[in-house]
Design goal:
The protein is α/β, with parallel strands linked by helices. The chain has helices spanning 24-27, 31-39, 56-63, 68-71, 75-82, 117-124, 178-201, 203-210, 233-237, 248-256, 275-288, 298-304, 308-329, 375-379, 391-398, and strands at residues 3-8, 41-46, 92-101, 107-109, 130-131, 134-142, 145-151, 218-226, 241-244, 260-261, 291-296, 335-340, 356-361, 384-387. Bound molecules: zinc ion (2 copies).
Length: 407
């Protein structure tokens, strides 16, 4: 079995005026995507449900066949799993940023100058602290982004964020709800005091100040969440799966659902990501796994920045990735879908609730009259309009997987 879902992150769009009112998919040369459309069946997907704006996390949960309303508990656990921290039931995880405070304690940079290498040593200085019997893990995820995990008894995710999401104000004080939430907030307040002291005294930060760089002298917390109970992918579908992604959030979703994460050299999650090495990783993973989800993030990044031609360029790169997979594996050997996890219109620069196009090829798939892969052409295909969580069952059915419902 070789089942592939290729996700262009935020690849779906609306019409763009400087592209002559076409969408980037309509404008770009996406020959291989169009081949899937031409030889297969097409439709549009509401990743979550019609008009609901998806995050990359909830959208991937749905595209992997799960109901995000049932298992999504917040971003903290996904960031933790994505950055390679193993979690136990009862752990509370947060996503955090290193930030820079001035001498009055006011935030002057929410990302501490997008600190990179220095972050690892600073994160280590906060890792392993114990407060009131609760063990604290702290790890750098990527650049200024970090993960905080609390492990112990009587703790809860019912605590407020400390990130005011703007500069010029002081960080918020964490507050808890309920007895365990209160205790957790108290532990956090103590931890944040220790963090402030440790970080501002740290030689790495003193060196940063000497070099004229903003010191990472505090942290901002958000997205408190707990590990939900989830039926593993293999158990649920009887299929061995893996995920290839640059973004830790998507890796976190994969690990939560019990998929293996295949790390790829050069997969940065940015516009410079090496798409062909992702294609090669997909091809080699198919020797070992029945199912592979590949996410390419660059299209979303270009959309958030409103960079029209970078998005077009990235779509064409994703098309090359697809071309390599088709060429190496042979299209007849594959059940493959091309889609996006959400729409990120270049002219809006944020995710929106518009549906996304999907094209599925399989030897057993019906062939509809759609010839082109884009938002409009796919909408007249035979799949019609489905929900994100319907995608995998449709693909598994084409592969002959799944049991009869009733008799
Ligand atoms: Zn996304
Ligand atoms: Zn996005």
């Amino acid at each position: 079995m070789s089942i592939v879902v290729l996700v262009g992150d935020g690849m779906s769009d609306r019409r763009v005026s400087i592209l002559g009112d076409r969408t980037p998919l309509q404008y770009s040369r996406n020959r291989n995507m169009c081949l899937i459309s031409k030889l297969g069946e097409n439709g549009i997907i509401d990743p979550i449900s019609p008009g609901v704006t998806p995050g990359s996390d909830t959208a991937h949960i749905a595209l992997l066949g799960y109901d995000p309303f049932e298992i999504y508990t917040g971003r903290g656990v996904l960031e933790a799993l994505g950055s390679g921290i193993s979690l136990k039931r009862g752990d509370i995880a947060f996503r955090c940023n290193f930030c820079t405070l001035d001498e009055k304690g006011v935030i002057v940079d929410r990302r501490a100058g997008r600190i990179r290498e220095d972050g690892e040593i600073l994160a280590k200085s906060l890792d392993g602290i114990r407060i009131s019997g609760v063990k604290i893990k702290f790890k750098q995820a990527l650049a200024h982004r970090c993960v905080l995990v609390l492990r112990g008894k009587k703790i809860s995710h019912e605590v407020t964020d400390t990130d005011p999401k703007r500069v010029g104000v002081k960080p918020l004080i964490p507050k808890g709800r309920g007895e365990d939430g209160e205790r957790t907030a108290e532990i956090l307040r103590e931890f944040l005091n220790i963090a402030k002291e440790t970080l501002s005294e740290h030689p790495v930060n003193k060196e940063r100040i000497r070099k004229g760089l903003p010191p990472a002298n505090f942290i901002l917390l958000r997205g408190a969440s707990f590990l939900p109970e989830v039926q593993k992918f293999k158990e649920r579908f009887g299929v061995n799966g893996a995920c290839i992604a640059g973004m830790s959030l998507v890796k976190g979703v994969a690990r939560l659902l019990g998929l293996d994460v295949v790390e790829v050299e050069g997969a940065t999650g940015g516009l410079d990501t090496d798409v062909l090495s992702k294609a090669d990783a997909t091809i080699s993973s198919l020797d070992k796994y029945d199912f592979v989800l590949v996410n390419v993030k660059g299209t979303d990044e270009a959309s958030h920045d409103g960079k029209v031609f970078e998005k077009v360029n990235m779509i064409e790169k994703i098309d090359l990735l697809l071309g390599r997979i088709l060429e190496e594996k042979g299209i007849e050997e594959l059940t493959i879908a091309v889609t996006a996890d959400h729409t990120t219109p270049l002219e809006v620069k944020k995710h929106t609730g518009d549906p996304v196009p999907v094209a599925i090829y399989s030897k057993s798939a019906r062939r509809d009259s759609t010839r082109l892969f884009d938002e409009i052409s796919c909408s007249s295909g035979s799949i019609g309009r489905i929900s994100g969580k319907n995608l995998l069952p449709i693909m598994f059915n084409l592969e002959g997987i799944g049991e009869e419902f009733g008799e």
